[in-house]
Amino acid sequence: MRHLLVLLFISPWAVAQNPVIDSLKNRLNQLRPDSLRVLTLHELATNYWWSGYDSLAIQTLRQGMRVAKQAHYPTGEIRARLALARIEADYLSDTRTASAQLDTAYNQAVAIRDLSLQGQVFLRRAQLYSNIMSKLPEARSLLQKALAKFREAHDRRWEAQTYNEMAIMKMGEGQYVEAINHWLTARRIQENMNDLKSLRATLPNLGAAYLKLNRYDEAIACFTEGEKIANQLNDRMVKLFLISKKAEVLEKKKEYAAALALYLDLMKAYENPYTPSQLARAYGIAGRLSIALHQYDKALHYSRLSQDTYRKTVEKSQEALEHNAQYNFGEIYLALKQYNRVIPYAKTGLDWTKNVAEMRPERTGYLRQLAMAYDQLNQPAKALYYFKWYKAEADTMLNEEAIQKATVASMTYDFEKKQQVARLQQAQQQSRIKTLENDQLAQSRNFLIVLLILSGGTLGYVFWSNRRLRVKNDELARKNADIEAALYRGQTMERKRVATELHDSVAAKVSALKWRLEAMDTSRLADDQQREHTRLLDHMGEVYDDIRAISHNLMPEILEKQGLQAALIKLTDTLNVQNRTRFLLEVDESGEAVYGKTAHELYAISLELVNNILKHANARRAGIALHRQGGFLKLTVQDDGQGINPKKSSNGIGMRNIQSRLERLGGTYLISNPELGGTCVAVQIPMAG
């Protein structure tokens, strides 16, 4: 959800030292009341807003509206109204006036038939609604309308802005993978246009999404690039945002004191110029960090400041709740064993977050607080009710995060080792069969020469002997096929058994043990024992996550239940989060009916080829295509990387594994280097029907 701001007059002297603002003000003194003056006023207002001087930005935009009317420049007037609504989206202090501005702007945009401005009205209204939980569905619909308008107008800049807003919505829902995809789309458009003003927001937001998935390298890279642009544009808002992200990294590393020190600096920055919504958030996080440091008096002080500052900001309708402070109160009173005081705070927060997908993390926290409070108050029925609800929400959240954090992996090391042993035994058996065939054929040829010399009757014996040999070979081949099928069934059963045991037994026991540790009363423990208790809880959470990831990788459920096509779709979604190479998937109905051994072999081949691209190709884009043609199922994996020598590539272990799998399926493959560069591997296997 967005952070709220409040209007406050800032003296002109406070911004006189900004060189960009000074330059724009000097330029205004030389301009007549025409369209150029309107554009300059709009740019000046934007720089005021970036620097935190919102009241000056609003005054400048209103002046721009008056000049635009005098100059009969409707586009300038519409843009000023849109900017005023955008600033209000960060406040919620007067949404009714902002809505009226947007209504007028839309009618004016329709009158001059400007599709891009119509789309901007939809976008600004979506931003206004994104902080009001009851209007979130309408906000999503408005973003889709805005995107359609910008595409119709061929306005790539505002199309990228819409993807940015859609990503923010997805982040609020906890859908980090989809958010990252939207921001990457926006980033590509903005980099192609060299749109630094838009990149200044996209890069830090993208880094924040990576941070949610603990992808620290990608997050820091985005923050570094964003900081360069913020310094170049002298954007105070982005600079302060990046400081908060550095504090978040420290908090994730359990360096609470260092993180709190950064937030104390941020408080000073938000006090002058006074930015109440950001200040309220900083107070709330300082309270949370104080709880982690067991400094409950300070935590209570900061949380009250957060709540008071926030409530002075939002309009009387109170259409939003400050969850930083609300959640802190419950945690503080739990730690102080004032369980009766926990319940009203937790219930109020629960009412606000109920049935709102974007608020699942907060809702889960309130449910945990209620379960623990009622347990301590000896009300087991209520404690059990909220605990079951908490577990359902927590498991859902954990499953979503586990899927998003999944990497390309098919098996554990031990299981892969067993497969390699089985393949080696199978290869040895095939080698013995071929040796037997060669020996028998050699003996037959020698015997044939002798028999030809001796008599024609002996020739008939040779034919009979060869026929019997072919029957034996066919018999051996059938037995080999039966062994291979049994081996596959055994592997599948073993995967399912191990995955089920891990998920249903070990994971459940670890979860129960973690709950018992969380329920322990640590108030009487020494500080070092409390820290050890906290570390044990963290380790238990990591163990639980690892067990769930291993159980999913042992037997990909989507491959078993939905077939090859669904598994490839999920694979490309995962690859596009974890790697720099962008993977595209082209499928038709071919993969829907592919299950069992064929699906597993082709999926394993896809993983092998994908790993080759990630390790060796240095490609920016790659594609996976799956379709039927002429009685064959064809799988094509192609990239735009540095290319390989088709003759040398077949000698690698990976390609030999692929060839071995295709031999079992009766298929073939071909490696080529397209004219445009890169590598193309085409695989085909015969398919009935």
Automatic annotation (TrEMBL):
Origin superkingdom: Bacteria
PROSITE patterns noted in UniProt: HIS_KIN (PS50109)
EC number: 2.7.13.3
Class of the enzyme per the UniProt entry, highest EC level: transferase
Domain annotation Histidine kinase: ranges: 501-689
SMART domains (alphabetical): HATPase_c, TPR
Catalytic activity of the protein: ATP + protein L-histidine = ADP + protein N-phospho-L-histidine
Signal peptide residue numbers: 1-16
UniProt xrefs under SUPFAM superfamilies: ATPase domain of HSP90 chaperone/DNA topoisomerase II/histidine kinase, TPR-like
Keywords (A to Z) from UniProt: ATP-binding, Kinase, Nucleotide-binding, Phosphoprotein, Signal, Transferase, Two-component regulatory system
Identification of the protein by name: histidine kinase
Record organism: Larkinella bovis
